[in-house]
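queue> pop job 88
queue> type: inverse folding (structure -> sequence)
queue> payload:
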């Protein structure tokens, strides 16, 4: 099938942000026409900072009752110290405040599927990423009593010596 003669297709490797923004705006207008009053897209981010430097963080969106975690990164020196759990817990709590009932995330098999599963996320799909990897999609029902808020499960590492400024700040927010 051919395009109407007044149209052309432009494939762009570096599209202007304003051009890309037309797409979600048009899609949202369509969705609102079919699903009036649904929860709108809202960005969400949680950052751990040492002074002004971001040393860990989470970014995503909430939409129509779901939290989508687009990025979760923890610097090497802070891994396995409960920082990821605290980032996840803070995002989950904010999502629940926004009326979200569930969350989803995707991760590669060499990244953190076990981490998310320990927080109550269950796989619901996967894609092969040759040569040897998988992209795994996981979801979680927020407020599930079997999995308390991720931040409440963080445990201090007894083998640490003096905590960094970031670790001290994060430790001060842990539930006891």
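queue> result:
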């Amino acid at each position: 099938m051919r395009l109407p003669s007044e149209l052309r297709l432009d494939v762009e490797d570096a599209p202007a942000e304003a051009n890309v923004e037309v797409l979600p705006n048009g899609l949202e207008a369509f969705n609102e026409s079919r699903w009036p009053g649904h929860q709108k897209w809202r960005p969400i981010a949680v950052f751990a900072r040492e002074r002004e430097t971001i040393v860990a963080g989470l970014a995503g969106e909430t939409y129509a009752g779901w939290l989508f975690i687009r990025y979760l990164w923890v610097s090497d020196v802070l891994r396995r110290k409960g920082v990821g759990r605290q980032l996840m817990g803070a995002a989950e709590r904010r999502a629940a405040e926004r009326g979200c009932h569930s969350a989803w995330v995707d991760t590669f098999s060499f990244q953190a599927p076990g981490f998310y599963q320990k927080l109550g996320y269950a796989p619901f799909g996967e894609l092969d990423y040759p040569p040897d990897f998988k992209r795994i999609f996981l979801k979680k029902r927020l407020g599930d009593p079997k999995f308390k808020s991720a931040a409440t499960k963080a445990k201090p590492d007894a083998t640490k010596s003096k905590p960094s400024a970031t670790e001290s700040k994060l430790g001060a927010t842990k539930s006891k």
